[in-house]
Amino acid sequence: MKEKQAARFCKCIESVKKTIKLRPGQPKTKDAKESAAIAICVKSVLQTRRRTLKKFKCRGKAKLTTQEPIE
What is the value of pTM for the model shown? Predict the structure, then answer.
């Protein structure tokens, strides 16, 4: 399950990074685009399943660590 979610999260970041437009006045760097893409994907992929991002890695084999939901 977690491997599937990690792959989906990394795929989301890659696709959003290509299409995102930054706010006016922000530096138009690759790092700024990637940070914005990570924020969008955390909101759409992880928070819809009540998860909080702790750590992730997309190079090589995708790896994702989340905090367990509090019930």
Answer: 0.85
Q: Are 47 and 9 in contact (CB under 8 A)?
A: no
pLDDT tens across 40-64, in order? Answer: 999 999 988 888 999 999 998 999 9
**27 φ/ψ angles, rounded to the nearest 5 degrees:** -65, 135
**CA 32, CA 7: separation in Å to the nearest integer?**
22
Other residues' Cβ atoms within 10 Å of the Cβ of residue 3? 11
For the chain, the structural domain boundaries read 2-67
- Contact call for residues 13 and 64 (beta carbons, < 8 A): no
